[in-house]
Amino acid sequence: MFDKIFEAQQKAGEVKKRLDAITVTGSAGGGVVVVTANANKQVQSVKIDPVVLKEGDIEMLEDVILTAINQAMEQAENISQSETAAMTKDLLGGMGGLGALFGK
Fold it and tell me: 80 CB contacts (<8 Å, ≥6 apart)?
């Protein structure tokens, strides 16, 4: 049983590394704001087209930034769920009849 716990910890570490390496992007306002994050939901960069700053509409800029961030986070969440589900399936598949207890 401890072997399975250790294996689960190792697989979780592997999934985290994979998620760190996956890049997702959210953009809004026709691409005037682009947010890049990794699949662990860590924002890596925010790019803002200088034309937005010239317009001076701060509320619009704030809305566009939020939209781009939310898009990136949604993509990251979807990828994270897929990777975690695959890891869980692999682990439960190796636990014999116990997998059925968790809906496998």
Answer: 19, 39, 40, 41
Token pair listed for 100: 């059925």
- The answer on pLDDT for 86 being more than 90 is no
Class level of CATH domain 2-89: alpha beta
pLDDT at 25 over 90: yes
| In the predicted structure, residue 28 carries a pLDDT above the cut 70 | yes
Please say whether the beta carbons of 18 and 83 come within 8 A: yes
**Maximum average pLDDT range among 62-71, 84-93, 94-103:** 62-71
Q: Domains of the chain: which residue ranges?
A: 2-89
Q: How many residues does the chain have?
A: 104
Q: Which amino acid is at 48?
A: I
Measured distance CA(104)–CA(92) in Å, rounded: 8
Structure tokens at 85: 């589900």
Q: Residue 103: what pLDDT?
A: 52
DSSP H helices, 22-97, are: 50-55, 58-93
